Amino acid sequence: MAEKSMEKLVSLCKRRGFVFPASEIYGGINGFWDYGPLGIQLKNNIRDDWWRNMVECPPVGPDGHPLQIVGLDSAIIQNPKTWEASGHVGGFNDPMVDCKESKSRYRADHLLVISNRNDTGENRMYAFIADDSDSEDRAHKLLAKYEKVDLPLSEVDYQVRPLVQLPVEDLQRIVGPDVKTPGSLTEPRQFNLMLDTYPGVIRDETNKAYLRPETAQGIFLNYKNVLDTMRVRVPFGIAQVGKAFRNEVTPRNFIFRSREFEQMEMEWFCHPDDAKKWYEFWKDQRMKWWLSLGIDPENLICRDHEQDELAHYSSACVDVEYRYPFTTPGFGELEGIAHRGGFDLTQHQEHSKVKMQYFDQERNERYIPHVIEPAGGLTRGTLVLLCEAFTLDENRPSGVYMKFLPRLAPIKAAIFPLVNKEGMPEIAEKLYLDLRGKFTCQFDVKQNIGKRYARMDEVGTPFCFTIDGQTKEDQTVTVRYRDTLQQERIGIDKVEAF
Ligand code: GAP
Questions:
Q1: Hey, which residues does 434 pair with through a beta bridge?
Q2: How far away, in angstroms, is 346 Cα from ligand 1 center?
Q3: Residue 131 exposed, middle or buried by CB count within 10 Å (0-12, 13-18, 19+)
Q4: What is the 256 CA–ligand 1 centroid distance (Å)?
Q5: 214 CB less than 6 Å from ligand 1?
Q6: Contact criterion met (CB below 8 Å) for 72 and 222
Q7: C-alpha of residue 382 to centroid of ligand 1, in Å
Q8: pLDDT digit string (tens) for 90-131?
Q9: In the Cβ-directed half-sphere of 138, how many Cα atoms lie within 13 Å?
Q10: Is the C or the N end of the chain the one with fewer CB within 10 Å?
């Protein structure tokens, strides 16, 4: 995994049409990305697999019966009272510090400070940006690399601490990540992550609305509509995939943390007494689903949140975490599974004055259901599959190929005439037309065959079918396997079944 550098992956994504920086011709815009022709295909394949697994073919529950989960597509902009009730207006904040000299802005909780353990209260201290998984060991290496300390590391006993844990007076001694003199960092202050907008013609505070920071609230707003119109009974789920927006202080690590991204969320409404059981159930299901996308089990873990990590709405939460190239050897978040209790429905009941209680006929009891929420990142999941598929192989021209599971690969099959003459393109095009209604295929006649294979390796196409001189004689084509590079002949009439 160490060799799977982000630099190489980002370059492949650009070169082969997976992900482009948004507004690139204008110099880009921090925290926004465009998904190219192959990126959108891959992202849609993950989304469709999730939707099938959640809505069309939900898991079988502990009692042996299939669960009831219905889909939803709610508006990105809702009445702003939604976000007051949900706690996002008051509580969806990150601590932020500014650097007065470099004008950079950092998440205060992402800054670590290295200092002498026998500090006399006068020496300089150095702040650097660290992923959650960065170890103290990495901090030392980083520091040594940039030669920021005045003394050789071997002679001094250093300690690394989160900036937010240091007394405010120490700020005067701290050298910020992008500057050379101490004292340029401001005190941490809370920064609301919601992006706002002003629908309609009048641009004042009374017309302020928000781009949703999570898809979940649209589900809570429609809980009653779904109950009243669909034949669902508690326990049941509502699933939604869509865009969410957060004004992240420091968007980074490619599409890992961006300001516009997509989520796949499902709110599972259940009786309060059963919530713990369902929490365990969904933990297990979600790990299984991610593994079913071909992720190496070594690279995926489930990590319970500490009490002080829990979001304002949650009484328990576990993260599914992946070993990204930039967190290795540690892990970073991919999905959170939260026990939200009755928080959201109760809040919306209080703020809207609309009753959110459910009458359970079987139990003859009225209650506000509790909610278990598996909330995954679709764009982050796309990054995970890109990282996971990225396979170094010195036997290939570009030294790399993308090993997607065939069912998730953006292109399932490429159809090539060996040369662009002698009747081969016509046969190849006919085969392409026969297959394209069932599989995402690509027909390509240009360049020599080696280059066309190399391109398909880099975009992760599992099979290439080539029409050559022999095809006209015996109606066979070669099939080339992406992973083994082996080739064999099969009848042209057997390609679809293959
Ligand atoms: N409704 C609960 C909720 O939104 P979250 O942990 O804040 O929970 C769920 O978000 C998932 O959304 C995360 O696990 C992550 O995959 C994705 N996500 C959150 N912020 C993101 C960002 N800035 N960029 C990309 N993905 C993000």
A1: none
A2: 23
A3: middle
A4: 10
A5: yes
A6: yes
A7: 13
A8: 988 889 999 999 999 999 988 988 887 777 777 788 888 876
A9: 14
A10: C
